[in-house]
Design a protein that fits this description.
45% helix, single chain, disordered C terminus, disordered N terminus, two-stranded parallel sheet, mainly alpha
Length: 332
């Protein structure tokens, strides 16, 4: 996510019903149906806003202050020609990222069948399927490992950036790492591209947005550099070799180095006292109020743990309410 200019734009995301609405436009369906689905999108998008009435009324009608409509639509990566045909001079921000980090990010939400979902979209687009037929064959091969399949998907979608080089599309390519490391400079480029004055003051997304986005993204989390180079914490040497073999040419063309230029990212557990990483408190069994009860009994103790000695425990580890967990949730 990136900061949005207060009361001038509305963000519509996949969970808001974005794709059904766009598909009615592409299919040249009647205006009444298009407008009905658009209002539903707006009504759903209101739930993601801290001050919804500034952007959209409860009936789905946009506020007069909204000047820009932002569609967060990664699945339209396959539809550059349709975008050029059915939208009037669209402005496209094409985001790309180190594919090794994309593979890692996809793996964190592995309960979502991303590879299968994307493969269906690829095969439904004859031009894309023909262009990447070797990758499609690999994706259909049962011997292909999950990290390899994710790399093929990420490579295909990244390589499709050239399909947006059309006279009817105003495209700007933005590297995720540049946005995170130099947000002010990157955002100025974006403002200029979407015809807002350079240096436009944007409200931080943590003030504008609320709730959760796709892939368990908490909309009020701050953007930080910890997400850069996470593959070093998750991919084995062999897995990284596989990903580079699949997507190395693409990464090289985008000026990514095999070895990171910057210092390695901070290990994920460094913010916790070391003993907590080896002695977690595990609540299992019944969900709902049972595990919430355990959370309430332990939260205060963990909050007051100093990293040296906690009350009631000579070892310096936080007191573990083992009996309480067993009574409320059952012995594992």
């Amino acid at each position: 996510p990136f900061p949005t200019r207060r009361s001038s734009d509305l963000l519509i995301d996949e969970p808001n019903g974005l794709y059904p609405w766009v598909e009615t436009i592409i299919a040249d369906q009647d205006d009444d149906k298009v407008y009905t689905l658009f209002k539903r999108c707006c009504q759903s998008a209101r739930k993601n806003l801290a001050k919804p009435d500034e952007k959209c009324h409860s009936n789905g009608k946009l506020s007069d202050s909204v000047t820009h409509l932002i569609l967060k639509a990664p699945n339209l990566t396959y539809s550059a020609d349709k975008i050029a045909t059915h939208f009037s001079k669209p402005i496209c921000i094409f985001m790309y990222r180190d594919i090794r980090d994309v593979v890692t990010s996809m793996g964190k939400v592995d309960w979502i069948p991303m590879v299968n979902n994307q493969l269906k979209r690829i095969k439904n687009n004859v031009d894309v399927a023909n262009r990447f037929k070797l990758a499609v064959a690999a994706l259909e091969d049962p011997k292909t490992q999950p990290h390899q399949a994710r790399a093929y998907i990420a490579k295909i979608k990244t390589d499709l950036r050239d399909t947006f080089d059309q006279a009817d599309i105003r495209k700007l390519e933005v590297g995720y790492e540049n946005l995170v490391r130099s947000p002010d400079e990157c955002l100025d480029r974006i403002w200029r591209h979407i015809k807002l004055p350079a240096g436009t003051s944007g409200s931080d997304h943590t003030d504008v947005m609320r709730g959760w986005g796709p892939g368990l993204t908490y909309r009020q989390s701050k953007v930080n550099v910890r997400s850069i180079g996470q593959w070093q914490q998750y991919l084995s040497v062999d897995q990284e070799d596989d990903v580079w073999e699949i997507a190395g040419t693409t990464l090289h063309n985008l000026n990514y180095s095999r070895k990171l230029d910057s210092a390695p990212c901070v290990p994920l557990w460094d913010s916790l006292p070391s003993e907590l990483t080896h002695h977690p408190i595990i609540a299992t069994g019944r969900g709902g109020s049972g595990t919430r009860g355990v959370r309430r009994t332990t939260a205060g103790r963990l909050r007051h743990h100093s990293g040296r000695r906690a009350a009631g425990n000579r070892t310096g580890h936080p007191p573990t309410p083992t009996r309480r967990i067993h009574r409320r949730c059952g012995t594992p």
